[in-house]
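As described in the Methods, two query proteins were run sequentially through the folding procedure within a single session, without resetting any intermediate state between them. The first query and its resulting structure tokens are shown here.
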Amino acid sequence: MERFQNWWKQEKRYLTMVKAVLLALLPVVCCMVYCAMQGKSIGDVYLPCSEWNDELFYFKQVEGIVNYGYPQGYFGFNESHALKLSFAAWSPVLVFPWIFWGVLFGWNMMSPVICNIFLMTLACFLFVWLVKPGWKQLGITSLLFCLYTPFVRYMLSAMPEVICFSLLIIFYSLAINYLNRERTVKLVILFVLSGLFTLMRPYALLFMLLPAYLWWKKSGWKGLAGSGAVFAVVLAVYAAIKHYLGAEYFAPLFFTDWVEAFFEQGLWGGIRFTASKLYYMATAFNSHVVQGFRTGLASGAFFAGYLIMLVVFLGQCVKDRISLGRLRRQVESGGESGRERSGALKKQMTIEIHFAFSLVAMLFALLLMYKLTEGSKHLLTFLAAGIFIVSTLETKFYKKAMVIGAAFAYFYSYMAIDPYDYQVPFAREERVAQVESWRETLTDTLTLNMAETPSFENSVIWLFRDQSAGEDLENVSKEYKNVKWQLLYALPEGFGINCCEKEYILEHFGELQSRYIAVLAGGEVDVKCREAGYTEWNRDEDMVLYQIN
């Protein structure tokens, strides 16, 4: 007991604990304040009021996993499905914290929200415990956290971005702790965290380079060879998950045309193709940034914030490299203080150079491999981690923090005007009543077929959009309307959802594999289903659910 008390006092663990608890409270406080400003509470968040349809897939897949081990119907697109089990295009590894949470505490509409808040709270606590920032550093972190409103928006959602945020924050916190006090177990955990993150999002392979470098620095070629083996295993597991557990999406998730150009057009042809694509995409990227400044376009705002973060870290790398050269000269002239400062600066540069490199590499990956609008949300994870890293820089970082904070305030508060991207989905009485009405009806009418699972017998086609047709097909509207997919939250637990385009439905009408289909009320497909004699299970002014006979 006395030994523990000495350890507690000597290391000032009590003070670190106070700081850790204070920062850990910040995610909860930010969510409560944001909701209070809207006259709401956290409990008023209601996922079926959201316009982000990815949330439906994530939520219902986790629901199926928690209750049955895996969804009993197929998740996919245009009736695609995984070779094994029944997951959609994204790896189930991406939502593993939610699965654990659901198994422990049950799964309902508020579960992903509460779990997200818990994960950010845990990340904040571990950041302080591992890094041990000073009070000023803690203040900078808190200020930037509050100004970066995507933290709140994604915590109060069923999107897995917060899982990525928290995982990367913990990763860098542990890396800083390792540099201050090297332990093999920490290096192992760094590999585990970065490997797990890579299975979730393949661009996270960038972060595996940091523990690989640290192992090489510690053990030489043995560490380099070991890192290579770890890379090979992680990539093999990712490939297996993608091949066996991933359903085919509407379009490729990653574009590899620039890689194929090297095989088809040779070295110089590949270089020309890649350079031209970079120029074209950089021009489009710049247009998004301009619109982010002018109108608050979300993708442009994310790009602009990312560029500012990138410039800050590149500038810091250059500045610290110059300072390191000056300190080395002091050491050579016999200055002991310079030796100590040089060692601390080297540790700092290990983190900032790796992070700056990752920012640059991800920018090129975005331009070459992603659709700009869809890829923009991946940059949010880098911005989230950058907030915590910038506060650890042992320099006069206030100017850098103020620049980043001003950018966050402008883009993510002042210009955050588009409800689709920034408004938290709070419950509306009419939507709650509509979803509950559908839930009551479908619970009584739809039953899982457990004879063979997963199967299309437990799958519901979600027609993405359709054109109004009235009572016949003679006056089909030219305007497309989205099916109110939010009503599909009412499906019983275990059912799979297969999002299909209208063109696919019409081309394969009469030979669809799924047992059920949800369509736009009064739409062209609604008329065809009615004419085909499909059994109608429920209808309202927005959506109709048929059983395909």
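Immediately afterward, the second query was submitted; its sequence and tokens are:
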Amino acid sequence: MAVLNIKESFITENKSIYDFLNQSERGLYIPLYQRQYSWSKDNIEQLLEDISRGIQRIASSDKIDETKEIRFLGTLITVVEPDGTQIDPVDKEAIPQRIEKVIDGQQRVSTVALMATLLVKRLSEIRKKVNDKMTIYKSVEEICDTWYEKLLTVFAFDLRRGTPRWKPKIIRGQSDYWTRDDAEDLAYTSELSNYLAHFIKAHLANEPYPLLSVRQHRFYDTSVYKNGRIIESWLKKEVAEAHLEQDDEFVPAWKIFSNLSQSSIWEYERQNLLDIMKQKDFSSKKTESYILCELVQTLSVCHYLLDRCCFTIIQPTNEEWAFDMFQSLNATGTPLTAIETFRPLVVNTVEKTFNHKFKDSDSDIYFRKVEDFLSDKGKADAQTKNRRTNDYLTSFFIAYKGITISTHFSLQRRELIDAYRVLTDYNTKLDFIKKMGNYAAFYQNWIKYDGKNGSVFPGIDISSDSDLASMLILFLKATNHKMAITILATMYNSVIEKIPSSEDNFVSVVKAIAAYYFLWRSTTSNSGLDTTYREFFKQHKTFTIEDVSCYLKGILDKRGIGTQKEWKNKAKNYLKYDSTGKEVIRLALLIVAHDTIPDDTNKGLIKVGRDGCSKHLSVEKWISGDLRTIEHIAPQTNKNSMWDEALYDTTIEPYQSLGNLTLLPQDLNSSAGNKGWKEKLLYYQSVAETDPDKIADLELRAKDLGITFNADTIQLLKDCNFNQHLSSISSMSADDNWNKDLVDKRTNVMLDIIWNRVSQWIF
């Protein structure tokens, strides 16, 4: 009886991406039954996060052995195809020497191939910045050529014949075939293989083939295009500009070499390049320092992806065994999260170390808050649960330790275990779990709160400013300012624990954070904003509202926007429709509308009125459809030159300024469109009119002005709700002139009102 040699039935190897894919004349074949390439945005962002954090760990640790920093990307199951002529379709003159069917892992391999092309593209873009008059010219040429050769073998193989000789590494059964000379669009019809074929041809001919060409081709709505755009954006911003931002999104070039040998980046010691790079001359994007930093940061990604990311490759000698293995590896159900694997440690510690019963204990109650949030009480699917876990733990550890942790499972678990084990007694361990539970409870409220029916945020209804604070939470949510959660959730812990004055303190910190975000975003982009929160928590393990306000005020002072004059000088040029997020503009216009009245001495302008005369800073107003859209009074297009030409100065674009903007219901905004001043004024007067008789005579009033409205427009204007914020504009007449001078005056007055209100929230 023959003895089955199981050891020889399965070949198992651990290989880096480069070692696995850099095998000459070998192609990967995706069988027909495999799904299309469809890696999600979450998968892509996880990979980029892993690479960023891996490079960061190499650069930042003074203890790390850089030879041990690797990232496991999972298991691949492949089977050798013994007869290449049996694949379908087939060009017998273009069959690789070795074909491997990919039974499991094609999503990861396809993503790596896509990313390799984009790294080639980025290196080409950087290389073109260098000319032969620069001292770094020959070195950059040599370095890029070396990496071109290495990256090319990741997504292509050399057939040694045909035009071009290099062919896509990956094809899909029934959709593609390796061809000797046929046209790319004939031989490769799947999205990835077609893209690879075009990219290879263009690269070898030294012609541009940007990812955007996929949009112009046939695959603009596919995962290749969408994921490629995410990767390309990451390479061009977080990676290429890391030396400018100097926050912890990506490591700047000079830190990369702190623990990483030069041979990993450019083969041998190049001290002259290091010296130029460390000069940090970033006066323009064309300086040698700038180019070298951009190059090193990009090459660190090449190195980490190809040499430190790895697969376990399992190669059964029998294809049926391969399918059995595939089923067994993927039939274990929903993967566990770091939180779920952390729970047994908490249970064992409570019961075995401190001799307390865990079930229904305080630790159990608070831990359940976390579990209920992550699973949404059993409603969340696996993907949602994993995403919530990543978001929650990332946010929690910023608030707990001022650090950004990896979204990788094993590293999350390690952070949780280390944070818990270092605590020495029962009460401190319980306090840690309590913070986790209450943080999750706030996060749950943050996600679910929508302000419907004018409701205020849970737990703060007894505060006199609960309505304003609730509206500001909706504002922060609308801007997707998740970093605000770190401070808000920490302060909310006291609200849940019912500590005296905690509601008012929480409301105060909401106002401070909203003011901080608004003042920042009304003068500049988001860049660097998140870092200020991390730095706060590095400096403050516990804090009061005074600590928060003092810190935020200090940051605003450092950025030159801590006084009314400083802020106005920047806001008048930046707080514009096309520069600032739309929700920031909406809040600005609601602030301006709140408790203001028309200025009788200056038509079209406003001034502060009595308290309570026009309440616009409320949940009801924020969610109201009547104030949903931003309206350009002088429209964005000066059709038939109906408006003051000075408003359309292309250098400063006054028509985008705050003084030329207001709020209208969606239907009314669409109807107003590009109409002239007289027609638009009638719209605004209708919305601001309090006399029902004048509303009834709307059609007659229009005719007196020589305007003809159709029945639908008239009915729309009659049905619209009263809105006092338009009173200052409606007080004008058809003979008045809406021009740049008036818009500038309105902007100036509005900015003063905004500062006087918002500064009180934080100062």
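The first strand starts at residue 10 and ends at 16. We note this only descriptively and draw no conclusion about the first query from it.
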